[in-house]
Amino acid sequence: MEGFDFTFMLEFSREKRNVEHIASVAKGLTAVTIVSTATYASTTSGNVYRLTARRRSPVLKAGRATFGRVCAAMVVIGFSGAVGNTPLIELRELSRELGRRVLAKAEFLNPGGSVKDRAARGIVDDAEACGALQPAGTIVEGTAGNTGIALALVASERGYKSVFVVPDDQSREKINLLQVYGSDVRVVPAVPFTDPENYYHVARRIAKETATAFWANQFENTANRRAHETTTGPEIWEQTGGSIDAFVASAGTGGTIAGVATALKTRRSDILTVLCDPMGSALYNYVNNGELTTEGESDLEGIGIKRITANFEAAPIDRAIRVTDGQAIAMAHWLLEHEGIFVGGSSGLNVVGAAKVAGDLPTGSTVVTILCDGGGRYVSRMFDDAWMRENNFAKQQALPAILGRG
Ligand SMILES: Cc1ncc(COP(=O)(O)O)c(C=O)c1O
Known about the structure:
With 406 residues, this protein is of the alpha/beta class. It has helices spanning 19-25, 78-81, 92-98, 116-130, 146-158, 172-180, 199-209, 223-239, 255-267, 283-289, 325-339, 345-359, 385-390, 399-402, and strands at residues 4-13, 32-43, 46-55, 88-90, 101-106, 138-142, 161-167, 184-188, 213-215, 246-249, 272-277, 319-322, 366-371. Helix 4 packs across helix 8.
């Protein structure tokens, strides 16, 4: 049978049921064949089953099914336990328009609100395991905001203090959150990496001068990349049942794209992996022709780098494409208006990249990307009409215009 596999959970209270019964309860799953079923976990109220099903007509039937009692009925332990296992959302309208499935990993639904929760948990777990972070110690990091937000929450969960150095070109919302979470926040001028006052170098110095400090160093600490190789990538593989043609993402530290690309390529080497890069970042040229050169600039937060980090190095990325701020921001507005999905600029950029890559693949192909954080972090910027006008961005654009096919 032609189609694609997907995996979901069903919880049954009381007695164990047989496979046919489980399948019959999966209400609304029209045109599906159950491929396999397994007991996933036992809870106090019953058993959770993991089902893999195959569905025909991927694009036309997309998202129509109501899954009844499908749930992720596991109890998780604390903030760290709630990180990951995010939904993979089929962007229905976009997929219908393109005739290809675009699936987006909803990382903005992590408990700290961004993809960086995974990196933060991974980095702290690793530091505890190797003794770099001692009980009641201090976590220090230079951050565009989301990593700090995630580390601050892991710190409160585990009894650490936190100090964050944030460049002053990041949104007020993110800086405010760090302060609300009780961290010591040092806002510094946004200067190039080569300047010793760049937030990265300031954080390193603070860590060196602070007793019991641990410098998370998300750019060079490969526990970041491993967190995605061991969680995000395998989740995408399972959620698509291996039916994935391409993975597309941008890079801030490179942890997400490198980790996910490695996990997917290890499972199936012909999955296309594509970096989508904002203007002003050197990675586009680096991936395509080995040169660390840049053109233009970008206001998007959390993504784009001019150097090769340990997390990005040797990532199995096939090619790179460019996406402009105008396209990314217009797509974030389009997603809100047409899909009911409220995300920030890097997510908009990723979806533009995924749509472009999908357009070059055969009809019915599946492309996966990342929704990095929620739009609430940018209400004073890209979701503010005055800011949009001042920066010459247009929010209402038809899809072909956003994708540069207008
Ligand atoms: C909003 C946002 N999007 C994307 C990214 C990129 O993630 P990574 O650092 O894993 O490349 C970040 C990283 O900080 C971010 O803050």
